[in-house]
Design a protein that fits this description.
It contains 8 helices and 8 strands; from the N terminus they run βαβαβαβαββαβαβαα. By secondary structure, the protein is of the alpha/beta class. The protein has an 8-stranded parallel β-sheet with strand order 1-8-7-6-5-4-3-2. The chain is globular and about 45 Å long. The structure holds D-xylitol-5-phosphate and zinc ion.
Length: about 220
């Protein structure tokens, strides 16, 4: 069964507690938290203090997506704040194995993300060490963008490479421009976690929005 992870980036930041309760009741599986530093991506969002503040208000796993340079400086703080998953970008980590190991040392599940223009082959050396691969289907920085079809297709290669390693337990997440119209293709290619920001928080009824994505993914 595919998991659905609403991205808080498109939530009402003045009512995060209520927004969390609403998507949890609406059947969300994880909460996706987008952390941006204004350097790796052209936008600034939230830090560990906000993760710590929302942690008591949901039982769902917090899936923290670090779109930041020098993530090693902040990984311990995000782990302490209550992140269940921490994902770093391949493009931001010159010592990727060190960053992934640092996440694992905190007792947190480790993920690696790639931008739309980054080939899957660059992940080959790190695949034995990660719990999640995040395939970005938009250029990161903003919610509400249109999915890039060639980026989505990379999910199939990620799945094949993981299968070749016998690592069928690794989550494959897609992030960016996901809606009921493309969730089916994403799932068919091998996606196990669908991030959806505007398609969930932009909808008047979050329950209906999550159900529509889920039924498209499971069709
Ligand atoms: C993009 C973020 C995404 C974003 C997804 O930089 O990593 O998680 O919030 O939003 P939608 O689903 O609206 O594309
Ligand atoms: Zn994200």
């Amino acid at each position: 069964m595919v998991k659905i992870a609403p991205s808080l980036l498109s939530a009402d930041f003045s009512r995060l507690k209520e927004e969390l309760a609403e998507v949890e009741a609406a059947g969300a599986d994880w909460i996706h938290v987008d952390v941006m530093d204004g350097h790796f991506v052209p936008n600034l969002t939230i830090g560990p203090l906000v993760v710590e503040a929302i942690r008591p208000h949901t039982r769902l796993p917090l899936d923290v997506h670090l779109m930041i340079e020098e993530p090693d400086r902040y990984i311990p703080a995000f782990a302490k704040s209550g992140a269940d998953w921490i994902t770093v970008h391949q493009e931001a980590c010159p010592h990727l194995h060190r960053s992934v190991s640092l996440i694992a040392e905190q007792g947190v599940k480790a993920g690696v993300a790639i931008n739309p223009a980054t080939p899957v082959s660059l992940l080959e050396p790190i695949l034995p060490y990660v719990d999640l691969v995040l395939v970005m289907t938009v250029n990161p920085g903003f919610g509400g963008q249109k999915l890039i079809p060639t980026a989505l297709k990379k999910v199939e290669e990620v799945r094949r490479r993981l299968e070749d390693l016998g690592r069928t337990d690794v989550e494959i997440e897609v992030d960016g421009g996901i809606h009921p119209g493309n969730a089916g293709e994403a799932a068919a290619l091998g996606t196990t976690v669908l991030v959806a920001g505007s398609a969930v928080f932009g909808a008047p009824d979050r329950g209906e929005a999550i159900a529509a994505i889920r039924s498209a993914a499971e069709a």
